Amino acid sequence: MSTASTPPIDATTTPSWADLTAHQAALNPDLRAWFAQDPGRAARLTFDAADLHVDLSKNLVTDETIALLVRLAQDVDLAGRRDAMFRGDHINVTEDRAVLHTALRRPSGASPELTVDGQDVDADVHTELAKVYAFAEKVRSGEWTGVTGERVRTVVNIGIGGSDLGPVMAYEALLPYKAEDLDVRFVSNIDPTDVAEKTAGLDPRTTLFIVASKTFGTLETLTNARLARDWLWTELAAVGALEDSDEARTAAVGKHFVAVSTALDKVAAFGIDPANAFGFWDWVGGRYSVDSAIGTSLAIAIGPARFEEFLTGFHAIDEHFRTTPIEQNVPALMGLLNVWNVNFLGAHTHAVLPYAQYLHRFPAYLQQLTMESNGKSVRWDGSPVTTETGEVFWGEPGTNGQHAFYQLIHQGTRLVPADFIAVANPAHPLADTAAGDEPVDVHSLFLANFFAQTKALAFGKTADEVRAEGTAEDLVSARVFSGNRPTTSILAPALTPSVLGQLIALYEHITFVQGVVWGIDSFDQWGVELGKKLANEIAPAVTGDAAALAAQDPSTQALIGWYLEQRS
């Protein structure tokens, strides 16, 4: 029996799970004492993976905890499942597919060659990459023009889910690398406000739309694509650049629209030349696709050379995860720590707090990556899960979050593990000159907050320390910080394309590790299908079909009725 189809090992029946349960019951976390008694703790629990410097020492673990978690990984055969993924076994069992986002960033000429289901995966990937790069260079150089012969100044990416969250997050993160004469906008929401706002102020003669939908059938994406096409025709006509004929309109679409899709017949029916459609494969999940042709808008913005650096960063973490022993393997250890926090310490959420403004969309990106992957209640063989799965991922950039929700993390009743992310060298090394003072490096001030927050969360402040500050006794309890709030610190030299790729790959593999322990298929997403199906069934009721309205439940009927009254 192949590794892909082997029933999952029930982690809760393993010796290591029993030992972890007993260990947790006897554990009295005390980070203050642990650090005081063990000067080598920080060094021993700090690891490097490519350019990422990761400090796990402020988590609620001892050496015994780590050893038991490593044993758990062995008991559930994490290494075997990892190897199955990398070689292309069909570990996405509910869709009978390989899981090969790691193949998207294998360098040209990688050895041994990767052949899956009779296909030369390396050749396929690099052929499509070359096509994306050639198109990106045409747009960047001005060779690609619109119907009036003017070069593209604005690219509008139309997609949703992984076809939006990945590209927009990466674009925002790598803005310092963007071509100065090009801007990219992103449309995802079917709310017509989104497409209206994103096309506002644009010149149709210099605007290029990328419609990203593998099947070219996603409701939101195709609706927005049609709205964008109507906008293009209307605005080109308004500036005298479009004749009133079907031929002229079709020609305009051909010059102002390209697609990321494999449904070439539907692409052609929309008016896009199939030669200008860039594809990817069913072994790439949407939330794992930013390094595929889905990243075409990013490749245009930062250029093929920088996009190659982006892929190189992914690959560096892939290789770390694939080859490093579990006890030094950063994604494996972080995934196992998340299992410890969820299943043994009772955490329900996980904060990601980037102290880097360019990463402001990273928590939103991770929401899809982690929650669409591991928000499951059945295992990959269809049996019920045997323990809690998934976490609610959330977060905002520091220091904004400090003035919003850190109160709950510091002094609330809920345990909220948090990942703090920062870079040593900012894109904009600015100084603040206060009256009469020497200039102060603002990034150093910013990072002082990063270091202070993890210290405060770990070590807190005791009642005696509060009293020593002269605080009135009736206020002491309000100013006590319990500490023992777990955090992981992730530092990198700078937010380069490579480092961004490393961060994304890190969390991809963290998510994978948790899925293996829980025995779930982290690569399907059936949970999104029911709502989409019902939306299609309800749509006629919302547009006035009395029979469709009558078929709804009383609550839905009443809500639609109120809506229709307001619209009328």
TrEMBL record:
A Pfam family recorded for this sequence: PGI
Superkingdom of the organism of origin: Bacteria
Entry-linked InterPro entries: G6P_Isomerase (IPR001672), G6P_Isomerase_C (IPR023096), Phosphoglucose_isomerase_CS (IPR018189), SIS_dom_sf (IPR046348), SIS_PGI_1 (IPR035476), SIS_PGI_2 (IPR035482)
PROSITE patterns found in the cross-reference section: P_GLUCOSE_ISOMERASE_1, P_GLUCOSE_ISOMERASE_2, P_GLUCOSE_ISOMERASE_3
Subcellular localization, as worded in the UniProt entry: Cytoplasm
UniProt keywords, alphabetically: Cytoplasm, Gluconeogenesis, Glycolysis, Isomerase
EC number annotated for this UniProt entry: 5.3.1.9
Active site: E372 (proton donor), H403, K532
Primary localization class, coarse: cytoplasm
Coiled-coil regions listed in the entry: none
Reaction equations catalysed: alpha-D-glucose 6-phosphate = beta-D-fructose 6-phosphate
Pathway(s) annotated for this protein in UniProt: Carbohydrate biosynthesis; gluconeogenesis; Carbohydrate degradation; glycolysis; D-glyceraldehyde 3-phosphate and glycerone phosphate from D-glucose: step 2/4
Enzyme's top EC category: isomerase
GO molecular function: glucose-6-phosphate isomerase activity
Sequence similarity: Belongs to the GPI family.
Reported function: Catalyzes the reversible isomerization of glucose-6-phosphate to fructose-6-phosphate.
Protein name as it appears in the record: Glucose-6-phosphate isomerase
The species this protein was found in: Oerskovia merdavium
Gene for this chain: pgi
